[in-house]
Design goal:
- The chain has 121 residues and is of the alpha+beta class.
- The chain has one domain: Trna Endonuclease, Chain: A, domain 1 (3-Layer(aba) Sandwich).
- It has helices spanning 4-9, 29-44, 99-112; strands at residues 19-21, 24-26, 48-57, 75-84, 87-93, 116-119.
- Strand 1 (19-21) and strand 2 (24-26) form a beta hairpin.
- The radius of gyration is 15 Å and the shape is globular.
- The protein starts with a helix and ends with a strand.
Length: 121
């Protein structure tokens, strides 16, 4: 699911900060390093079902969708999602928290009734 509104209205990391490892482009060195750590944990069997850049539609519990100005369902892209001890874990890699990141995480946590782990330097 493509979320053009969300991605165009909240700034992405500048191209200078992007890092490519194993053919995968990450938004930052922190995110790339954490991805490698999570891959290691998956190989060791500590976590499973590891995914990155997962689009989560923003739909309220009563079924009402949060829509973009063009009428499409708004999404929140989560950096890393995996299962640990049978629980789905959502993670964001942030070197610093912007207002947009705080809003994004707060809306996601309110809708999905779960906490987002923020990975920092």
């Amino acid at each position: 699911m493509v979320c053009p509104y969300w991605s165009s209205h909240f700034k992405k990391a500048p191209r200078d900060y992007r890092v490519t490892l194993d053919g995968i482009t990450h938004a930052s060195k922190l995110q790339a390093k954490h991805w490698q750590e999570l891959q290691f944990l998956e190989r060791c069997g500590k976590i499973k079902n590891l995914r990155r850049e997962v689009n989560m539609p923003l739909v309220l519990p009563d079924g009402t969708s949060i829509l973009t100005p063009t009428g499409k369902i708004m999404c929140c892209r989560v950096d890393h999602v995996y299962e640990e001890n049978g629980v789905t874990v959502y993670e964001e890699s942030k070197s610093f928290m912007t207002d947009a990141a705080r809003i994004k995480i707060a809306v996601f946590e309110a809708i999905y009734k779960t906490k987002v782990r923020v990975v920092r330097k």
